[in-house]
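lol so apparently i was supposed to do this last week
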Amino acid sequence: MQLYQNQTIQIYNSLSGKKEKFQPIEAGYVGMYVCGPTVYSNVHLGNVRTFMSFDMIYRYLKHLGFKVRYVRNITDAGHLENDADAGEDKITKKARLEQIEPMEVVQRYTVDFHNILNTLNFLPPSIEPTATGHIIEQIELIKTIIDNGFAYEVNGSVYFDVHKFNESNEYGKLSKRKLEDLIHNTRALEGQSDKKNPQDFALWKKAEPQHIMRWPSPWSDGFPGWHLECTAMSTKYLGDNFDIHGGGMDLKFPHHECEIAQSEAAKGVSPVNYWMHANMLQLNGQRMSKTTGNTVNPDELLSGNNKFFSKAYSPSVIRFFNAQSSYRSVLDLTDDGLLASEKGFYRLMDAIHSLDDLQAGSISTFNVSEWKQKCYDAMNDDFNSPILIAHLFEAVKVVNQIKDNKASLTSEDLDVLKQTMNAFTFDVLGLINTSQSEAGTEKLSGAVELLIQLRQEARANKDFALSDKIRDELAAKGIQLNDGKDGTTFSL
Ligand SMILES: [Zn+2]
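anyway here it is w/ zinc ion bound
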């Protein structure tokens, strides 16, 4: 018997605005699509948070025994985020700037994306389709939407007719917007567009002469609109109606709204049963933004090479930090928060590493089966990982009590505790088993960083006797401080 047969998951569905019992279309199988990265620059840490949350969800579904087909696309065809930006898409712009081929840009940043995700211990999706690999499917989809009367061609470009669609369907049902309000809030810019109405969106754009990425189509040499690729690829691999569609909150409108419209217009069915959205990542209480400089790249966070954090953080600490908030809450990245997560992570590791040395007792003073179900209940409640972590720490407490002879578990209960702690920590949360010595090195480096900081303060106060003492005493213990232009580093 598979675990999913006695665990009932509730998923918060953005479409209905409430938690619903998860019932897959086909028992035992889950089809899940998540909007992937646009590979024209380094992957944004906010996007990594979204993908990390869905990695955990994917892991939990697999842990329960579901056969999951997880599709996460790569947006490698330049897309129009704003139709006023007609002609030159983002990928081409960047390529022109760097004087290289668009597909070279795509290749570089796709590799970069995979490297970051591998480092952070992500499971690869089952299928990772690219937009450029599915141009034919996208053209076929446009033909169907035109045939069904929901799109029109003007000067070689094709637009989705939102007003026509809204007569028979409901545009805005996911993002809770009304077309009348959208009309009211949009200023019509005369002569700027071929569109009948400003709310219409491009399915196909005719390429300007300078546009490098282009494909032949019945309407013009051009390229597909961005929203289209997700409809084409999700339905190709998961069916016209599938279980879960995820993405960042910022994609709800217009991207996901347009996906629903395209699917309903082409296939006459609503594409997705459960829409899931991961919330934003902030940095020090503020929105991350390249323009204000309040931003940090994933590799800068991992290397410690940035101006926001006191040290480098390991992949597991970053994953642990992410899991300490619900995927639906805004997550605020701070040095204090990461330091606290680091402490918590090593406490959990210490407990897990001592599990094998624990002696079984003749009785159990802790109800392990009740505790185990509480771990499942947490994840069954819309993947509530912070509550799961609270239960894992309840187990850490018990482990430490057993070590101090203040609690005991029978060997049967001890086995269940071990299995459950390992399964949730490594299989579901995706943390990497970090040995005591690695943990020791990590702790040592934290202590040395603190001494370096104290030495800097001493120097700033012109207390050179103290600053020299710190350096010399560390050297005597085999830790060499190296003063450089960008601060002080150390080597063992
Ligand atoms: Zn998408």
